[in-house]
Each structure stands twice: as C-alpha cells, then as structure tokens.
Amino acid sequence: MNPRWIGTALVILVLSGACVQLGRWQFHRLDERKDRNDVTRTNLAAAPAPLTEIVGPDHVVGRQHDWRTAVVSGRYDAAKQVVVRYRNVRDRPGFEIVTPLVLPDGTALLVNRGFLARQGSELAPATIPPVPAGEVTVTGRLRRSEQGGSTSGGTPVDGTARLISGPGYAAALGLKLYDGYLAVEQQQPAADPAFATLPGPEVDDGPHFFYGLQWFFFALLAIGGLVYFSRQDVQRDDAPADATPNGSPDRTPDSEPVPAGTTADREQDNGVPPAP
C-alpha cells in the first residue's frame, strides 16, 4: 500500500469501469437494432398502401414507417431536382438523384429516383435521365430523413447535397415537404433504365454483440493485470534479504569456513616433515 500502487489501482479501476459501460452500451445498441429489425421485417412484409394511409397528418416519416411500401401519385418538379453526392451502392461510388413529387394537395414528397454510377473522377453526373412528363404513380419504400449530426449536408447548395432530408430541403427549395423520402421501386410511366436499383435494408444483428464482449474482456484483462503485478511486488518484498533467488543462504567468498589448522600442521599430522 503505497501512493504509486494506490494511484495505479485507481486508474485501472476507472478504465475497467469505462470498459464495462462501453460493453453495456454495445448490448443496448444490439437491443435497439433487434427492435428496429422487427419493425423493418414487419414493414417489408406489409402490402403496399397509399401514402396518406401510412403517414399521419404531421407528414413525418417515423421509425415505425421505415421501409414500408407506399404508393403515391403526383407530378415531378424537375426544376428543383437535387444531386446527392458521395453515394456508394454495391461498392460503386456515384450519385443519387432526388426529385420532389408535388402531390394534388400541394404538399411534396422527395423521391429518390435511383443511383447513377460515377464515371471516372467526375463531380456530377454527365447526364441525368429526364423526369416523365405529366402525372406519375410511384411505388417505393419510405425512408426517414437522413441525419448528419452537425454537418450541413442536408441543405442543398447549387443543386447538390450530401444527405436526403425533408426539413433541410424544404427551406432551400421553397416547398412544403414531407419529413422523409421515398426510394423508387416501381414507377408508371417506367423509370429510365439508366438508374440502378437501390439496395434493401440489412436485417441482421451487426457487430454489437462481439464488440460488447471485447469491452468486457478488456475490463477483465486490466483487473487481472493489476492483481498479477501486485502479487509479484508483494512476493519480492516478502523475500528474505539474505536469500538468493533459489532460497539458499547468500555466501560470499570471504564468508566461506576455513578448516582448522594450517597447511604445515596438516602435513605434520600426516607424517610429512615440515619444509625447512
């Protein structure tokens, strides 16, 4: 019990406690993911329904609506189309084209029309397939507005953005938008074949379980190391000061016992005459 070891023990205990909390957080995220997967599976299995029957009058696509198939009709507003950059679909970088669909009641819904792979190092698609003229009927999956923390990527600038966000687009485009968007699966008239289909959801538990186990292992490893090295110090302190590592008495050449008598005495006792 000295200041050095007390300080070390406190630091290791704090770090171990932090590891335990991180492990619990990962298991909490696992529970959230399982709940979200249950909602996703239910929504994927649900029959298509009109948008107004799924989303309430608040016009907010919530977690309970995520990946639900909705059917909506209206007219595309091509003048307010947005190119979403830095997208990656099936390990291919590219762009997604988002066009507002103006509904009969005057509100509008952002529609992700599809993915265009990047050609070379271009910063924007060379050509974008035009929107169909007149009224269209779109069947697709509802998605919540994307969140980017403190980034402003959800607000279009010069017709481009990094995120798809109803509230972020509404002010920039001057439209009364739903908070959320629709990813196209089918469209009448048919969508341009240049668009690649968008991937579906990942319905699995993710890495959270193993991450949680790793954090708990780090906590046990830290405490185990503290106990091991503490015992090593205690054993060294308890060892006798005059003992060698193998426990035998520590002797130096000066402390070796000398037989009684001198060399001359021993020779005389054996019948050998002393040297002159």
TrEMBL record:
Q: Please report the record's description of how this protein sits within the membrane.
A: Multi-pass membrane protein
Subcellular location, in the record's words?
Cell membrane; Membrane
Keyword terms of this UniProt record: Cell membrane, Membrane, Transmembrane, Transmembrane helix
One GO cellular component, as annotated? plasma membrane
Show the segment(s) annotated as Disordered: 236-276
Q: Looking at the keywords, is Amino-acid biosynthesis present?
A: no
Q: Where are the transmembrane segments?
A: 209-229
Q: Which domain of life is it from?
A: Bacteria
Its main localization is membrane
Which residue stretches, if any, does this entry annotate as coiled coil?
none
**Pfam families, per database record:** SURF1
**Family annotation (PANTHER family):** SURFEIT LOCUS PROTEIN, SURFEIT LOCUS PROTEIN 1
Provide the family line. Answer: Belongs to the SURF1 family.
What is the name listed in the Swiss-Prot or TrEMBL entry for this protein? SURF1-like protein
Per the UniProt entry, what species is this protein from, by scientific name? Kribbella flavida (strain DSM 17836 / JCM 10339 / NBRC 14399)
